[in-house]
Design brief:
Four copies of one chain form a homotetramer. With 197 residues, chain A is mainly α. Chain A is 77% helix and 0% strand. Chain A has helices spanning 14-34, 41-48, 52-58, 62-87, 93-110, 112-124, 128-147, 155-175, 180-196. Chains A and B meet through helix 6, helix 8 and helix 9 of A and helix 6, helix 8 and helix 9 of B. The structure holds a DNA duplex (21 and 21 nucleotides).
Chain lengths: 197, 197, 197, 197
DNA sequence: CATGAATGAGACTTCATTCAT
DNA sequence: AATGAATGAAGTCTCATTCAT
């Protein structure tokens, strides 16, 4: 139930749902192409092909749009990780790690600037409760993954694995890397190296 | 040396230098305490105890303030790394790595929110040339450091080491970690693990 | 009779009449509870349980709703006064004054905030013709009432009696008085005092 | 110290004081000529011959302007009453009543629409604390005045005298009366009639 | 040089009203 | 008739920057 919290009303008719989608798409595009500073409600509405009024029917303010974008990203991430974990045999650690990283890297590199822009936005927005929940959820999943390995896993270990991966993937995004396979291989190398030392 | 490219005048007199310092301090404080969104020139001037007019005597626009803050951070970082490298014997890799990380971690954790805020600001500002120069300089130094080790060092390796370290240190900053020693030990573990695999 | 001048259609069917009633009630409630500033057509429609579209079937614009509310208030007042006058013997002045004030006070204190809100609204709305008619009608009735007394009655006298009564009743409404009998006694004292001096 | 509470900064330089004065004047004019509904910050600024920005230097929002206008009115009223009371011999009740009413009527009829507009505005604005203080202060002064008379004075009496006077004066303002002397005579007749009955 | 008042473009948001379904 | 999504003019307010003193 991603809705409701920061939305004004849930779009019942198809048209309305399309409007919401347009607004979110437009916001993402602007964020990617012209950055945070150029993101304003008039631009968003214009680019989405709707009126500002419509925008405010579904989002109480500008932040709510960012928030929803971030929520979507997080949801995609969590479900992606879940699916990756579900698709791999419980006892094959490296395969699972591989699958999980494949999903995460794909999500980041597919639209690298959006991922980056949203990461930055997270710092400003007051979605702390949700942020904590998300981080906890992700941490739990990664911990679960790491427990499939032969290594001893503490909370710190999990955090570090996340930090290492995030650091490398973001760095790659910023640097304009596109070779997902190579990146994945290097992240695995780092993670395995960290775990096995 | 701090270049004068984006400055209106180099403050030769003492009072002027103090003014500049006040402005930068005030900006840093606001950034840390109330975030990017609350940083505006009137606030800065007020907090710095000067008039907006004075502020514009020393900085051509708001971005220049951020830029200068970032420059200072970078300069501290590069000189810190240089000194760390200079202080260690040329053939002791781990000692050098340790020293370098000590400096970097200290810079980050001393005022974690400022480091974070400035990192984020970098993404918005159009100081690309300088940014590239800085990244190149840092990369060169780290490459230099890594070459002291027994491992084969490619550009990719250097980048990854930087990415891993940055990821972990930022993560620690966000998480409010304060134990610099423990953090350094973990970063070293990650870097060594990555290199030796 | 409620005129149809400012109405789009006279609601002959029951449901339509109910809709109109709901809209007016909702408006009154919002006015009382949250004031003039919170009164907007979307809110009214929502509170009335109809759609904005329906609202605009029965009222050409927002003002028309206020106007209708004011009309109703005036109508209740004039009929109330008429009935009070009709119910009392032609030669008993004080009894008649008493009866008239009873009606008026009741109308005001029953929903004091609505009365006040509507009084204020009157000042903004361009229903001057109707307003003049109403005032004239009321003045005529009061003059008629005063003529039952032993005192000489000029137009000024009538106006003053109205002004005094209105002033005291509104003041009581604002102050949250609820003792209608005591209020009536004091108003009578003021009016009689004025007339007999 | 009327300032500070609802002001952003107090104007230190002459120019700034003039700006504040212009803004208040302009607001009063608009209020009188075109009513509450036409009062918006852009109009005010334009009419005052300053920029909106300047307006917001001295008033945090639109309401603050109205508030200040109301404060001024109240202050003029209270000081006016004080002076009237001070100017009359302590034992001459009617002379004092006369003097007080003269002041109040003058304040109202001099710019009748402004007085009315502000009275209405009072109802919407959240200056309740101040409103209560003002009413108490006025009540105290009037009570003081009434105690000079031979009549027994309760709080209710005072309230009623205020209500009667206010009702009559406002009514006169609305009706466009200009003969202050005649009005005063009638108000005195009403008040004396009420007291002596 | 410093001051701080003034500026105004532009961002955010509301709400009366229309109109396709 | 009813619905509720869409509209956009208009209003509120901020803040980077200028400029008279």
């Amino acid at each position: 139930m991603t809705q409701a919290i920061n939305k004004r009303k849930s779009p019942r008719q198809e048209r309305a749902q399309a409007t919401v989608a347009f607004i979110l798409e437009a916001s993402a595009h602007i964020l990617v192409e012209r950055g945070h500073g150029a993101l304003n409600t008039n631009q968003i509405a214009m680019r989405a092909g709707v009126s500002v009024g419509s925008l405010y029917q579904y989002f109480p303010n500008k932040e709510a749009i960012m928030t929803e974008l971030i929520r979507q990203k997080r949801e995609r991430m969590l479900t992606g990780v879940d699916m990756a974990l579900a698709d791999t045999e419980a006892d094959l650690f490296e395969a699972a790690l591989n699958a999980v990283l494949e999903v995460i890297i794909q999500l980041h590199l597919h639209w690298p600037n959006l991922a980056l822009a949203l990461d930055q936005a997270e710092a400003f927005l007051p979605l702390n409760d949700e942020t904590i929940q998300f981080k906890d959820a992700l941490k739990a999943k990664i911990e679960h993954l790491l427990c499939r390995s032969e290594f001893t896993v503490s909370e710190q270990t999990t955090q570090d694995v996340i930090a290492i991966s995030k650091g490398m993937i973001e760095h790659a995004g910023l640097a304009g890397e596109t070779d997902e396979v190579a990146l994945r291989r290097r992240v695995i190398r780092a993670v395995m190296g960290y775990l096995s030392n």
